[in-house]
């Protein structure tokens, strides 16, 4: 794992608040494919268990980029809700 500071060290896989979105990684589903990192490199990194975590530059990626990263996950391990708690992805 990189020395990159985490967005939330107590909850490295979230949930985290990204503007109006609540985003988290289901660590039981995450297989470490790293597609999320390829799409949103300022948001995700893999930890020592090959699970996606949020780094402190998350807010530098756009909401659309984070949503694209979630859609690119082969096992739909990245969950996104809007400010009202409605599931944005996966539906």
TrEMBL record:
The keyword ATP-binding does not apply. SUPFAM superfamilies: 4Fe-4S ferredoxins (SSF54862). The lineage of its organism: Bacteria, Candidatus Roizmaniibacteriota. GO terms for molecular function: electron transfer activity; iron ion binding; iron-sulfur cluster binding. It comes from Candidatus Roizmanbacteria bacterium CG_4_10_14_0_8_um_filter_33_9. This is Ferredoxin. Ferredoxins are iron-sulfur proteins that transfer electrons in a wide variety of metabolic reactions. InterPro entries: 3Fe4S_ferredoxin, Fe-S_cluster_ET. Keywords: Electron transport, Iron, Iron-sulfur, Metal-binding, Transport.
């Amino acid at each position: 794992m990189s020395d990159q500071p985490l967005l939330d060290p107590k909850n490295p896989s979230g949930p985290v608040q990204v503007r109006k979105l609540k985003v988290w990684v289901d660590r039981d589903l995450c297989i470490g494919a790293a597609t999320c990192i390829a799409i949103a490199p300022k948001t995700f990194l893999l930890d020592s268990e090959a699970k996606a975590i949020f780094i402190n530059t998350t807010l530098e990626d756009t909401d659309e980029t984070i949503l694209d990263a979630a859609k690119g996950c082969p096992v739909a391990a990245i969950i996104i809700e809007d400010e009202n708690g409605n599931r944005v992805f996966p539906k």
